[in-house]
Amino acid sequence: MEVVTGALPSVITKLGELLVGEYKLQKGVKGEIRFLQAELESMKGALEKVSNTPADHLDIQDKIWARDLRELSYDIEDHIDTFMVRVKEGPRFAMGLLPEIRDIKIRVEEVAKRHDRYKISSDAAKPIMIDPRLLTQYEKVTELVGIDEAIDELIKTLEGKNEASMRQHGKIVSIVGFGGLGKTTLANAVYEKISTQFHCRAFVSVSQTPDVKKLFKSLLNDLGNITCDETSDETRLIRVLKEFLQEKRYFVVIDDIWDISIWKMIRCALPDNDIGYTIITTTHKFDVAEVTGIAYKLRPLSLNNSRKLLYRRIFGNQNKDNSAEEENCPDEELAEVSDKILNKCSGVPLAIITMASLLASKARNKLEWYEVHNSIGTGLENNLDVLSIRRLSIQNGKESNVMMAQATRTLQHARSVVVFPSVVAQVPAPSSCHVLRVLELRGCDLSQANSLKGLGNLYQLRYLGLRETRISQLPEEIGNLKFLQTLDLWRNHISSLPLCVVQLRNLICLSIDETTRVPNGFGNLSHLEQLSELGIVGSATNMIEELAQLTELRLLAIRLDKWNNKLSECLCKLQKIQYMYIMGNSSQRSIGGLDALVAPRHLRELNAGTSCLFSTLPAWVNPSLLLDLTQIYIAVTELSQVDLEILGRLPALRDLTLEVSNKNIGILQRVVVGAGWFPCLVYCMLDGFVWPVVFQQGAAPRLRELWLTPFHVLKARGIACSDADLDMGLGNLPSLQTFSADLRYKSTSEALLAQAVLTHAAEVHPNHPRHMILIRREKATDSSSE
Description:
By secondary structure, this protein is an alpha/beta fold. Helices cover 32% and strands 16% of the residues. The chain contains 21 helices and 26 strands. The strands form three sheets. The chain has a 19-stranded parallel β-sheet that branches.
């Protein structure tokens, strides 16, 4: 049972802030807060212990207590956040905290007392818990449905050869899928079918809280070595297992692994030997499956197999021998409702078996079966009046308008609301969501007046998503959202932001359109870490000076109508930037405008190709400085072989767009990409280069896409497919999947020969990459244009 701690960690931290902050608290409040903090820390520890306990080992009272405490933690956080907002409006609001804290204290004490009041003695009789996996191990394969194909696939996987199995003389396959899908059943079926091929075999279950010593003893017992000292520790048991299995061909199934560390310990006891072995594991965690071995993803049952399982469980063997391709319901009246129930089960065998048990106890009546269908997966019909919705995602109002209307009227506890465009008209005003933290309205049409009325009352809002909502202005009351951290206004018609935006001192992420003007004073947004897409028109000296004050920026995207000489000085002050995008008009690019830039040491992505031409590769592009750079789009007027090597030595570079000024055509010829260069490069576009560009053996081993556009053919006489001097070395790129070249020529014959060379190179490449090779004549006025 994955019981999370709710808002307790956050609440405990905020209670501490109340104690040490600048809040002027009433006498006696601090003592009450300290009591609450200590009490909640103890409860948090208890909740964590509960969350690590399997559901079948938990007392029902513990489950109820955990649920109540989790809900209470959200209510406490709502009260504290409301106080923190209100207290900034004046000291009179601080006076109201004491009664609220005392009320919270009473509620916390009541939750604890209720748990103790109704706690049943641990000596009382408890129902016997039977692991369902135990039953599946003894179920006849002939009684199973839809498993034959999976058995054949799994055995084929076990018998297949790959690099790992050749190296280890064995095969490890992990069956992975969510609970109830039949992982244990499949593993047991394969175990029964092929286990006789091995010297010894074992089938053991791990569970969420394994006893490793007991697990190793079970392995030894199943494998046939029962001479085990009861006092042996794990180290001794691992040694005994390894020695016993070293000279045997063994088959082991390890069922229900939850943790990678447990698998690693078990693996220590299962040796790689020269005779061969097979290990099957089952897990519901994909990360565990990937570490364990070859992951076999178990699929849900098809609709037809789902029908077979349901009908046979309800109607017995009367339908068992039905050999028709399509399974038919023995009672035609129930066929339609059966399919609707199966759709909700999604092909999960355990869900289907559970539903079959329920339906078998009902009359074979369509109305009763529809009642069962309507009750699945809702649980809201009888409880809407007391529902505390924390997260609400409204996508489609057609199927259950009544339920959605009732749910949206009960939003006073909602913390996160996501609304999709088709139902925006049915959603109440956001002002009804008093404790809302997240409001996502992306794509909803809010162009009508008053669509955002009451927005300023959402004092606790942290995230406001208004992307593509067709709004033309923000209400002034947005300045009330003191805790707002993310404001997404991209793709709207907002000409300018209201002045009150500069009051949002907690803002971390701001997304606007390049045409949206920001108010004076936006440099006061000192916590801002992401700013896109800021439009800088003309000189805009004040704007650039304010931009330089945002020293916490990690992501900056700006668009220039023309180059501004103050920009380089500004960017040198923003040393925490990791993602820098400087877009502009390529026809008005600066030459050398960023040559003197002091690049941030943790820069990950740089795109300045459309706004600035570097004279040469700048000195700050240095492999020893830019250790984290993964993507760069850069344009230079001159590029030497040494410059290309510097780029090739960038240790993390995955995406390169490199443009050379077309004025230098004829100077840059026969570029060589050396062995060991570009070790991580996946995508490469070379713009303005001249035939040929040669890739040596060992260059760019991970390169998947290569684009040469435009690629100038100035001197291609004598080109032939066998001419080694003109071979570009595409065959030396072992990962190449896509290749494109836009050849520019003055002589048609030369271009056709160049096209033939490249086409042949792509066709004989072992990967047979997708390739497109165009030829176009150079224009005298612009050698890079069509």
